[in-house]
Fold:
Amino acid sequence: MTRLKEIIQSPLFARQKKKLHKQQIKDLDNAVKAIFGNPAIGEPKVGDLKGIRVYKFKSRGWQILMAYEVVESVLYLYTVGSHENFYRELKRYLK
Structure:
């Protein structure tokens, strides 16, 4: 993969990030750094979500999912949250 040069977060991602606790935001920032260092770290999706990758990480005992996509040298962050309704909201946002 090409070297990433830019990170763009969706408005939905920004809203969801605001609702997290301080420790969860730190864990999320560490997850973004991990993805920035190795864009292939997330699990690739198929079907309706082809091209999207989901990275899973733990924060405060909870499993958090983050959806992202790499296009050329840009990392697009789409959504973050718990598994409950995660994929349904992601599909709705991407339509």
About this structure: The first strand starts at residue 6 and ends at 9.
